[in-house]
Amino acid sequence: MLRIAVPNKGSLSGPASAMLHEAGYRQRKESKELVVIDPDNEVEFFYLRPKDIAIYVASGKLDIGITGRDLLLDSGAGAEEILALNFGRSTFRYATRPGTAQGPDDFGGMTIATSYEGIVAKHLADQGIDASVVHLDGAVETAIQLGVAQIIADVVETGTSLRNAGLEVIGEPILKSEAIVIRRDGAGTESPQVQQFLRRLQGVLVARSYVMMDYDCRAEHLEQAVALTPGLESPTVSPLHNEGWVAVRAMVPAKDAQRIMDDLYELGARAILTTAIHACRL
Fold first, then answer.
1. Are 68 and 177 in contact (CB under 8 A)?
2. Domain named ATP phosphoribosyltransferase catalytic: which ranges (predicted)?
3. Sign of CA dihedral 52, 54, 56, 58
4. How far apart are CA 68 and CA 50, in angstroms?
5. Tell me: the pLDDT tens digits for 175-225?
6. Please, which residues have CB within 8 angstroms of residue 128's CB and are 6 or more apart in sequence?
7. Strands 111-114 and 151-156
């Protein structure tokens, strides 16, 4: 069986299990379950701490895993990203009190507090900056107030909590992270089981990003309509019973669907419908 690691808790856990369910895999019913066997798909799911998943996959004990890009890089484990999953996005940045530093070039001799020591140490080394890194588990904002560090490095969403602590974001983002699928370095993805797993997740990603659009339009406006809805290869076009009219079906990006419907209506198209796509293979 294909052995897959899944986050057992945290912000990645729920969305990862939801995506796997959409992809047709059995998932646990209770949070206490640590292993779920899906015999129909020949897969075993192991629910592990998100920070440990890269280590298990790198050891070869598990074939692939779902974790965060930040957690993979921070672990330093011998595993690599093979597919981005478009959820769990975060931005990792430096912050400090106003006037302390403008960016990493000013960090020489300073101490940086973070929960992601591996990422920060590598970022500083890559830029040739001589600064100390101290590891803290959570609430790193208080490190500056208590004099443990002059700089912090942490996940930043809106920046509100940093501003409330009297801090400001400085420099460029260290890392932009999201949920990813990983494998052991050099393991390859030639396995039919791995390929099938990746195709299923890619199908979910496409299904979430597109809708199916159907509409009727006059034949003389067809080329203009098709320019608005080119589909992935080309749209399906069928003649209607009423002479001079055709029915068109095409996949369109979900984020653009309302604008496209407006443009089609202005062109004279009618009976414009959109429907969700639950699964697909491209």
1. yes
2. 49-203
3. negative
4. 8
5. 999 999 999 998 866 789 999 999 999 999 999 999 999 999 999 999 999
6. none
7. parallel
Q: Is the pLDDT of residue 10 over 70?
A: yes
Give the integer Cα–Cα distance in Å for 217 and 169: 52
Buried (b) or exposed (e) across 215-254, using 16+ Cβ within 10 A?
A: bbbbeeebeebbebbebeeebeeeeeeeeebbebbbbbee
Q: Tokens for 259?
A: 């604008």
Q: What is the secondary structure of 166-205 as a DSSP string?
A: T-EEEEEEEEEE-EEEEEETT--S-SHHHHHHHHHHHHHH
Distance of CA 94 to the CA centre of its chain: 22
Question: What is the number of H-type helices and E-type strands within the chain?
Answer: 9, 15
Which pTM value belongs to this model? 0.86
CA dist 235 and 202 (Å) reads: 21
Give the CA angle between residues 114, 76, 33 to the nearest 5°.
85
Assigned token pair, 229: 């809805």
> Rounded to the nearest 10 degrees, what angle do helices 13-22 and 192-209 cross at?
100
- What pLDDT score does 160 carry? 79
Q: Is the distance from CB of 42 to CB of 2 less than 8 angstroms?
A: yes
What pLDDT is recorded for position 22?
Answer: 95
Q: Check: CB of residue 174 under 8 Å from CB of residue 93.
A: yes
> Sorting pLDDT into bands at 50, 70 and 90, what band is 34?
very high
